[in-house]
């Protein structure tokens, strides 16, 4: 398990670019909202902790993880330096999990290739609710925090790369 020996919330502020002039969009799936709310809070807190003004963070909700693609595409059209797509898909009894996970991953990959605003993939694809809870503020930290740090780094790359 990739997160077994890593806390997703740990980062070194001293190694990060100055994020105070960046704007971020966060698109959040309403499906599994107890998980996605935790991921959003982790991302929001990390951005603010790194100097991003709250008014420079735009949050949009979409119904489910599959809708993150369209929401992120529309968010790229706003005045943002990076987008964070937050979702949670939990394995069920059918192949729906596979189709949603693959579609969202490919869709977000496509947005990164086609457009010039980076989209950070913060979609948990867990086998159980417990695994999702452990990665959205539980014992493994918060993947939302990790996504926010990636967004800051990618916004800086876009600006200076």
Entry summary:
This protein has 161 residues and is an alpha/beta fold. 43% of the residues lie in helices and 21% in strands. The model has no long low-confidence stretch (mean pLDDT 94).
Please outline the major beta sheet. Answer: 4 strands, parallel
> What class do helices, strands and sheet pairing give?
alpha/beta
The count of β-strands is 6
Rounded to the nearest angstrom, the distance between the terminal CA atoms is 33 Å
The percentage helix is: 40-55%
Average residue-wise pLDDT: 94
Shape: globular
Which residue ranges are poorly predicted, with pLDDT under 50 across at least 5 consecutive positions? none
Question: What is the chain-wise order of helices and strands?
Answer: EHEHEHEHEEH
Specify the number of helices: 5
Portion in strands:
15-25%
Rg calc: 15 Å
- Largest sheet strand order: 2-1-3-4
Task: Write up this protein.
This protein is α/β, with parallel strands linked by helices. The chain has 5 helices and 6 strands, in the order E-H-E-H-E-H-E-H-E-E-H. The strands form 2 sheets. It has a 4-stranded parallel sheet, sandwiched between helices. A two-stranded antiparallel sheet has the order 5-6. Helix 3 (96-114) links the parallel strand 3 and strand 4 (119-126). Helix 1 crosses helix 5 and helix 2 packs parallel to helix 3 (96-114). The N and C termini lie far apart (33 Å). The model has no long low-confidence stretch (mean pLDDT 94).
Q: What keyword list fits this structure?
A:
161 residues, 4-stranded parallel sheet, globular, 5 helices, alpha/beta, 43% helix, two-stranded antiparallel ribbon
